Protein: Ribosome maturation factor RimM
Amino acid sequence: MQLVVARIGRAHGIKGEVTVEVRTDEPELRLGPGAVLATDPASAGPLTIETGRVHSGRLLLRFAGVKDRTAAEALRNILLIAEIDPQETPEDPEEFYDHQLMDLDVVLADGTGIGRITEITHLPSQDLFIVKRPDGSEVMIPFVEEIVTEIDLEEQRAVITPPPGLIDDSQAEVASSRDEADGESGDESDGSGKSGDGGA
Structure:
């Protein structure tokens, strides 16, 4: 299974290094020297990491064959993709890969159904669940432990305690949205908590 682990940012210096927006909670595993990563667009890769270092809080990578600033700048905004075993799970039990969270039912502590996770957005400050509600509308739920109090993979649900105003409780339905959609065909979704890999 392929998961996005980083997005390449701007060139750094003149020797081919680039800044990287990390989308994995395991950068030392996914973005270490010697790692070979697929890319999106595919035509830009695969890329082999030659060196990596942290500078002013940002991860800097240099790829094999990328020797100057011009070549590094040409890689800007390319996504780096790691191949992982679908059965693999993050080392930290409080972390999750995107594909584990996709399609979970989102419910309140009392069981009231809010909707289903259809997308996970990785921002610099936090991750967001994009939750589709039974009426077709969407709500964004910050993936922080103060709000998302439990992830139950066995029951396929995420329990939330939203602050006032985050969701419109008048639209919530007691019946799980999963019950409604079970009869409908849908695409399989691949999709990190702490979301582990927003990527992998």
